[in-house]
Specification:
10-stranded mixed beta sheet; 2 domains; alpha+beta; 290 residues; D-amino Acid Aminotransferase, Chain A, domain 2; 6-stranded antiparallel beta sheet; globular; D-amino Acid Aminotransferase, Chain A, domain 1
Length: 290
């Protein structure tokens, strides 16, 4: 049985319990982060914790994140994931247990903090090299997508629509603009220029997204941050998604129409390799320090 973390304690998952009066359960009143670990080494854990702190501030949840780095590392160790090629730690903080009201508790309550670790796998190389498909789906999420909240029903409905249509991913569209995926950020390549939606309240400021933008600069790839109209998608040379468990994920078909050559393009392949190289460098750097 896996070991989880709940409100300051590590315990077998079967022994963990949360009150039915928790505002996360009743109102989706909480935030979360998912951090990847490669061979037991956290990747961009500091950036994930900074984003968590921002999400907490935006929702007015008072919680001190000090000590969470150790929680992440101990969960990986307790679950014997140090040698896993890929693992992740999911961390969730809700406002806590209080009578159900549509306003915050009058008296301060202790936030509920829950975390677990598990392995995950990248798609096989032959599958990745063929690319993935997507359909466009109306973006029905709320207007503060930049906060990483646990309220993901609209995302789940969009992703289920993709599965029902036989597609791998959902591309969310708002006012004729391709915003991002149901659980990933989104990029297009036009004539060698990498394009992605600018940061705003309508997209999540993805950690992998920002790493890829930095890598693009290092690789000498032109970058433009602007809205991408749906009509432009089919003129793009390449499309791809980025995310914690998606890394760099090529999209070669949208709504049944092939994109570019119908296979992952040169920019996508280059950025994917640069990302994997950075992961390896991070692991080697930690090993050298250790």
């Amino acid at each position: 049985m896996s070991i989880v973390y709940l409100n300051g304690e590590f315990m077998p998952k079967g022994e963990a319990s949360i009150s039915v009066d928790d505002r996360g359960f009743l109102l989706s009143d909480g935030v979360y982060e998912v951090t990847p670990f490669y061979g037991g080494v956290g990747f961009c854990l500091d950036r994930h914790l900074v984003r968590l702190e921002r999400s907490l501030r935006e929702l007015g949840i008072l919680f001190d994140t000090e000590g969470l780095t150790e929680v992440h590392h101990r969960l990986v160790a307790e679950n014997r994931l140090e040698n896993e090629i890929r693992a992740l730690v999911y961390l969730q903080v809700t406002r806590g247990v209080a009578p159900r009201t549509h306003y915050f508790p009058v008296e301060p309550v202790r936030p509920t903090v829950y975390a677990f670790a598990k392995p995950w796998e990248r798609p096989p190389e032959d599958e990745w090299s063929q690319g993935f498909t997507a359909i466009t789906v109306p973006d029905e999420r709320w207007l503060r997508v930049d906060i990483k909240t646990i309220s993901l029903l609209a995302n789940a409905l969009a992703f289920q629509a993709a599965r029902d249509a036989g597609a791998d991913d959902a591309l969310l569209v708002r006012n004729g603009v391709a915003i991002e995926g149901a659980h990933q950020n989104f990029f297009a390549v036009f004539d060698g220029t990498l394009v992605t939606h600018p940061e705003s309240n309508l997209i999540l400021p993805g950690i992998t997204r920002n790493v890829v933008l930095e890598l693009a600069g290092e690789c000498g790839i032109r970058v433009e941050q602007r809205p991408i109209c749906v009509g432009e998608l089919f003129d793009a040379d390449e499309l791809f998604f980025t995310g914690t468990t998606g890394e760099v994920r090529p999209c070669v078909q949208v709504d049944g129409e092939s994109i570019g050559s119908g296979l992952p393009g040169n920019v996508t392949v280059a950025l994917s390799q640069a990302f994997l190289n950075l992961v390896q460098e991070t692991k080697e750097g930690v090993a050298a320090v250790g």
